[in-house]
Amino acid sequence: MDPRIEHQRNITRRQLFGRSAVGLGTAALGSLLNESQAGETTPDGPGRTTIGGLPNLPHFAAKAKRVIYLFMNGAPTHVELFDYKQKLVAMHSKPVPQEYVGGKRFSTMTGNPKGKLMLAPIEPFKQHGNSGAWVSKLMPHTASVADDLCFIKSMHTESVNHAPGITFFLTGGEMPGRPTMGAWLSYGLGSTTQNLPAYVVMTSVSKGTSCGQIFYDFYWGSGFLPSRLQGVKFRSGGDPVLYLSNPDGMSRQVRRGLLDDLAKLNQMQFKQIGDPEIATRISQYEMAYKMQASVPELTDMSSEPKHVMDMYGPQVRERGTYAYNCLMARRLVERGVRFVQVMHAGWDQHNSITTELYTQCKDTDQPSAALIKDLKQRGLLEDTLVIWGGEFGRTPFIQGDIKNRKRWGRDHHPYAFTIWMAGGGVKPGMTYGESDDLAMNVARNPVHVHDFQATALHLLGIDHTKLTFKFQGRHFRLTDVHGHVVKDILT
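and the corresponding structure tokens:
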């Protein structure tokens, strides 16, 4: 029997449909293999080209060209850090008023909040800067840059648990499987560097914490978008990126020849099957080869002046710390990376507000403020959007025994909490929105998660209703079917 005829008889339905799509897939492959010729001059600046992206984006002039998202896994306590309420101080150890919590859903650790006791902030607040922003004594460095920040004190969400809450902020849905914000931006706006990924992720945890959160891969996933758009995680030890180094005995020239031959084999397979993930595989091999040269230069801190290193604090010299990652974030955006996601865990203080909160603030306060100062002095802050915040807030009432101060804690609280933003077209030195007099519920100018996402996209020149991707018969977007731009915070 002729083996060619036998092969045709055994072809699967998936292979048949895959081959019918080869025409479109070949065009996609061509664009990936010729990225260096595909760039077009964009508003990203003179001499910098955009690789990939959609042809009709940005929809309008962007105020931000890149994003650094400082995500505080575990939910920082807004009532301890930024949302000062005199009434909460006065009601310390008194039962929570039922009219503030009636009918609301809390985590299973709280259950019914009836009878819970109010807990005053553990450290005093002061107003800072010309803006008069309220900041806790726990955050002195953040207080020093208060006039560069826009505090949003009316954030609210539906999620009461960590993984769904984080996923909601990063993808617009509580269930895993949707693209993250960084993947959406890489898809829509493309990359401005050929030698580094458009989307980079770094994670850290305070030493000795008992309340760290798990970093799931879907926090930087591409969902149903092509997998080449997912975030590339930089590790805290060993090679920054797995499998980037050549094996012993393999030279860069040998690696180049191997990749060329491998690309030919992949292209042959692509012509047969038409699977776009094969095109992704080729492009990612090429990116890894380029990163072999770019990453050592990126991670070499010897060129950083001592006063800059000192500004980030003593932990900046220790790889894998939040301080190190903040400095790396600045170095990454300098080199054209579009979206840097810095995630720091340990804020889940159910019984450690009086102990581990101090450690968290010590580890993150100075580096966060230093990043703002560093970007500003380099002229990068005006077109770099910096975001700081977690997945929800913490309850104004106590979790634990009011008589045992060492074990004081606060539970998850989605109904009102604070984030801050800076640079990239956001008004500096302002506070937007307001919680009620116990920091329990939003009292003025509510900002939902989808509103926040719509606003971030708007700053990057994107109409959030028009950046879509058709999947399983539906046009999906980051903001789902919701979201309004918060225009009052825009410059």
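(Above: one complete record from the training split.) The CA atoms of residues 204 and 322 lie 6 Å apart.
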